[in-house]
Write a structure and sequence with these properties.
Length: about 400
């Protein structure tokens, strides 16, 4: 059998070592020494390749015991096979194993290059819990919770994949205490407008086009990219639906929704139907293939222009100062809250209409009760009386 290049290199390295001899002058199987230090030679059970590893033993008896323990640990999966795989290489596989868009790929790579340079080029087996804890502490001292959580997710995902692949036998993230894990908190909560203020905001928009754009978010729950990619063929007035089948990146590239759940039929609520009908009558481009919220020459609308239209509407409606952040995504929150609180739509239906695969996530993130404490208490008491609870 012709030896591989790796095995030839190992033979060359072995020439610099001498075989260990026992008290009778006989060679000891799998043990070598150089400069007074013991070295174990063995065939790796996982890869069947010949490996050499330095030992900490100081006597022949200790060296035999350490070598036997090393091989037993490899066979039983308690020790990982020696590997030169770097954190960056496992990270690349981690990205390839998930269905994520180009923007997410680039953003994660940016986070790796900027915040994880200390571990990026290291063997993943050499990354310890202490290394991870130090990285997280350094991040928390300089960056926002959002950045810290994003980097934490990359660390956790990459190291979890290394453990599943058998590159490491113990995930360093397992040693991170709950208090060391970054928590994602918003400096300002999302502002969820009640229906009356929502209508005031939409009415304050400068044109039918922008009123239709705001209504698609507030009464349809569409994301900004979905609004920009929507065409008139997606609006079915007869069936009473807005069919979401694509999204648009900031650069104007049209793509499929991030997940299969993103493709959905949104009920055409009366308020949304009215806004779209008013805009369709005035729109210069209203053929099936035309963008619903397009420019004056029928091209895709820039994200900044939609956000500027919202800002103008906020100024006109006197909503520039609110308790929370009032953005296009806030209108989506308001839509989900209205379905959950006012219409009492089931969690599974709410997730389906808003384009989520996890109903629990939908309720946790989007379905928020915008009423004050007094209104909530009054509502619960009224329902208790009607149900005869505690009577």
């Amino acid at each position: 059998m012709v030896p591989t290049t790796f095995e030839l290199e190992e033979v060359t390295m072995q020439a610099k070592r001498s075989r260990v001899l026992d008290s009778r002058g006989r060679p000891v199987t799998g043990l070598y020494e150089r400069d007074g230090a013991f070295i174990a030679g063995f065939r790796c059970p996982q890869t069947s390749r010949w490996r050499m590893q330095n030992l900490s033993a100081r006597t022949l008896t200790e060296a035999r015991r350490e070598r036997d323990g090393l091989i037993a640990g490899l066979r039983e999966g308690r020790r990982a096979a020696p590997a030169q795989v770097t954190f960056d290489e496992v990270f690349a596989e981690y990205q390839a194993s998930r269905k994520i868009g180009d923007r997410t790929l680039k953003h994660e790579r940016h986070l790796l290059d900027r915040h994880l340079a200390a571990v990026k080029g290291r063997r993943v087996q050499d990354v310890t819990t202490t290394d991870v804890a130090r990285l997280l502490r350094a991040l928390s001292d300089r960056y926002s919770p959002w950045t810290c959580v994003a980097v934490y997710r990359i660390l956790a995902g990459t190291l979890a994949l290394a453990a599943r692949r058998g590159i490491v036998t113990r995930n360093p993230m397992d040693g991170i205490a709950p208090s060391e894990r970054p928590k994602q908190t918003n400096l300002r909560r999302v502002q969820v407008l009640e229906p009356a203020r929502l209508e005031t905001l939409i009415d304050a928009a400068r044109s039918e086009r922008w009123r239709a754009a705001l209504a698609l978010a507030a009464y349809g729950g569409l994301r900004l990219g979905e609004i920009r990619a929507l065409t008139w063929s997606d609006v079915d007035f007869k069936a009473g639906t807005v069919n979401v089948e694509r999204s648009m990146l900031p650069d104007g590239t049209v793509k499929a929704p991030k997940t299969a759940a993103g493709v959905r039929a949104v009920p055409l609520l009366p308020a949304l139907r009215r806004r779209l009908r008013e805009w369709e009558l005035r729109a210069r481009f209203s053929r099936p293939s035309d963008f619903v919220i397009g420019t004056a020459d029928g091209m895709p609308t820039d994200e900044r222009n939609v956000n500027r239209a919202l800002t103008d509407a906020k100024v006109a409606a006197g909503l520039m100062v609110t308790d929370g952040r009032l953005s296009m995504h806030s209108l989506r929150h308001a839509f989900a809250s209205m379905l959950a609180t006012d219409l009492q739509v089931p969690a599974t239906t709410l997730a389906r209409v808003t384009g989520h695969s996890d109903p629990g996530f939908t309720f946790k993130v989007y379905a928020r009760d915008a009423r004050d404490d007094a209104a909530v208490v009054e509502d619960v008491l009224a329902r208790a009386v009607a149900a005869g609870v505690g009577a």
